[in-house]
Design brief:
The protein has 13 helices and nine strands. By secondary structure, the protein is of the alpha/beta class.
Length: 249
């Protein structure tokens, strides 16, 4: 789950930050690399002391793909147990939000989640089987108000609007953009509505399924439907039979 979520989010421009520890951390970094995204590893050792040692290749891949290894500890610092809870505040501090996959009752991940709350960061959690001791952390966080995450869309939907807009690539069709410039400059058109307008044409209808398929990487289904509704109300688009849409401007 860690690798899958990291891969899906990294593919959409989200940088993945973790601690490169065995297990979830390593999976998160690998997921980001699989998506050809960027990832940062925050170490509890000096940057010249790889821990665990078997992750040396992973560390090399992170650097080679434009990521970073970060540590506040001096060169040569060994992996002392007390270092890792200390470095967790750096992980949360660098992040927009912290996503908890697994955490036992007394794990260091609880420290990261607490630091995130103290630093004003969002906290997300993947629910787990209540009989699994490693599900205690995320299940407890969800009970306390953390956002429940089952897919990358659950994270994407609660990211700040300015962050999502910054991660959304510009419209590819330059000719269409020029033709719609006056409309897109209108102050009453929301970013989501601009996205929807970008895939609609005035001379050819587009089915709702195709609209959703083309925009699912950028908007949730509810955002797409709301944008369509608002655009139809403002007469910027028109719905044809069979849930097909065309631009009217």
């Amino acid at each position: 789950m860690a690798e899958r979520l990291a891969c899906d989010l990294a593919a959409r421009g989200v940088m993945i930050i973790s601690g490169m520890a065995r297990g979830v951390d390593t999976a998160a970094h690998r997921g980001a690399l699989n998506a050809h995204g960027k990832t940062i590893a925050v170490w509890g050792t000096g940057v010249d002391v790889t821990y665990p040692k078997e992750n040396q290749k992973l560390a090399d891949q992170i650097i080679a793909t434009g990521g970073a290894i970060v540590s506040e500890f001096p060169l040569g610092a060994f992996p002392a147990p007390q270092n890792f809870p200390i470095r967790n505040r750096v992980i949360s501090g660098l992040s927009i939000g912290v996503l908890v996959i697994e955490a036992g009752e007394y794990s260091g991940t609880r420290v990261t989640a607490r630091c995130a709350l103290e630093q004003g960061r969002d906290v997300y959690a993947v629910p787990g089987n209540v009989t699994n001791k490693l599900s205690w952390g995320p299940n407890t966080l969800i009970k306390q108000g953390a956002a429940l995450v089952a897919s990358w869309e659950d994270v994407w939907e609660v990211l700040p609007a300015d962050v999502r807009l910054a991660l959304t690539p510009p419209e590819p069709a330059a000719s269409e953009a020029r033709a719609e410039a006056s409309l897109f400059d209108a102050p009453d058109v929301s970013p989501a509505e601009r996205r929807v307008l970008g895939v609609l044409r005035a001379d050819e209808s587009t089915h709702i399924d195709e609209i959703v398929e083309r925009l699912v990487s950028y908007l949730s289904s509810s955002e797409i439907f709301t944008a369509l509704f608002e655009l139809e109300l403002s007469s910027r688009i028109r719905q044809l039979p069979g849930k097909n849409y065309v631009r009217t401007l």
